[in-house]
Amino acid sequence: MKRKVEVCFSPAIFGTQHRDDQVVVVVDIFRASSAICYAFANGVQEIIPIEDVEEARRYKEDGYLVACERKGIKADFADFDIGPENFTPDVVLGKTLIYSTANGTKTIQKAALCKRVVIGSYLNLTALANWLVRQDSDVIILCSGWKNRFCLEDSVFAGALVEQLLRTDRFTAKCDSALASLDLWAMAENDLLGYIEKASQRGRLRNYKMDSSIKLCHTLDLAKIIPVLKSGKLVAES
Amino acid sequence: MKRKVEVCFSPAIFGTQHRDDQVVVVVDIFRASSAICYAFANGVQEIIPIEDVEEARRYKEDGYLVACERKGIKADFADFDIGPENFTPDVVLGKTLIYSTANGTKTIQKAALCKRVVIGSYLNLTALANWLVRQDSDVIILCSGWKNRFCLEDSVFAGALVEQLLRTDRFTAKCDSALASLDLWAMAENDLLGYIEKASQRGRLRNYKMDSSIKLCHTLDLAKIIPVLKSGKLVAES
User: Fold this and answer.
1) What class of enzyme is it (chains A, B) (predicted)?
2) A233: in domain
């Protein structure tokens, strides 16, 4: 029997939609899930997602490498904002990274209701689809959205992942949000960056002068790793 | 300055998305909002939306005309299930109708946070767009979804309404859910019933043998009235 893949468009809906036995793929294309995948691609040892800014500050005081940003501004104590471009091999190789953002890290905490939590982005799309096929579970793709609201870039990515899973013939997608994601992906895939131009978060990043992330966040299959949440830390599987 | 039209894909998101000064359009294509518009088209005097089944039962005991359904089954005490086809002129003309369903009536209660609440469906699409243009407010289209989850038929309708409003040049749509709705509507509009075939609620109605509602719920501009919520009751404006 085929396994089910669902899409959840908002953390606010997740509580009523998820089942404990699902693998949940956390998506925050702009920029948490992309940045986390990029850091692992470049050899980071582990990433600790932190919701609370003060907790992130304490980690910095203890000598950790810290990425922390709120409302488009890097926290004064932090080493980096949360954009993927910060996490080059010379900076992260073999290190522990503390990663704190309002949206993406909150979603990871919420996802922890499920059996397994993994991080998905265009950067590890194909590796992730292959990994999900090897698990023996239904899948739910949890879009971080923005302040609990639907967002385009996460939903389009969800469609890309659903499509890859359906192509393996091991999965079936019946929930309306998965079907809508597939249709949005079909509209976007031939000109992904062009399509995403209209997304609200695209505009916010432009205002914050953080445009450099956009292209990197939409780079396909740069990484073969799957960031998996284990005891509150993200570590790489492949 | 142009007014804003937004779309909210789930009552679970509404709390963080709405503003009190918006007009909210409640949508539940299968079947509450379609049925309510159809009943007004056929001369119902007023409709009282009721969430609680026991309260609906008490109205019946007091001699009211009652539509009440849960999980695809008409309540034993009720006159009708909640399908629009029940509300023909010979039945509803000049009457007060009690209308109780799990999903749609709950959404109406939630919507009451906003300045004005109106009911939208394909049956009153053009009249509704014209009415919204005449109001001096931003608009939020609240999709009932299903158990707080995203649903296709409501979202596609939201796209149809957003498109009509944009065409008047009085509105602008910037939120991602409005933009996604527009794209879904663009995919669906040339074969609306065909597109909706894949919707989960379409399948549920088939299982309940309630297929007769489908076409009626997608009939364009049958009604020129706008059901407006006033002191807990829906009455018609035009």
Assistant:
1) hydrolase
2) no
The pLDDT confidence band at residue A231, using thresholds 50, 70 and 90, is very high
Q: What is the pLDDT of residues A205-221, one digit of tens each?
A: 888 887 888 999 999 99
Q: What's chain B's average pLDDT?
A: 95
Per residue in B190-206, pLDDT tens?
999 999 999 998 888 88
Most A CBs within 10 Å: which of B9, B162, B176, B191, as the mutation test of the A interface? B176
Q: Is residue A112 part of a domain?
A: yes
In a domain, A232, yes or no: no
ipTM, two decimals? 0.95
* pLDDT one-digit tens code per residue, B60-74: 999 999 999 998 899
CATH number of the domain within which A119 lies: 3.90.1560.10
Instruction: State which residues form the domain around B17.
Output: 3-229
- Residues A179 and A176: their CA atoms lie apart, in Å, by 5
Instruction: Annotate B36-64 with b (16+ C-beta within 10 A) or e (fewer).
Output: bbbbbbbbbeebbbbeebeebbebbeeeb
Query: What's the total number of domains in chain B?
Result: 1
> Can you give the C-alpha Rg of chain A in angstroms?
16
- In a mutational test of the A interface, the residue from B27, B150, B202 whose CB has the highest number of chain A CBs within 10 Å is B150
**Strands B226-230, B233-237: pairing kind:** antiparallel
DSSP state of A2: P
Q: Do A13 and B13 touch (CB under 8 A)?
A: yes
Q: What is the pLDDT of residue A103?
A: 83
Please indicate, yes or no, if residue B166 is contained in any of the structural domains.
yes
Name the band, by pLDDT with cuts 50, 70 and 90, for residue B211.
confident
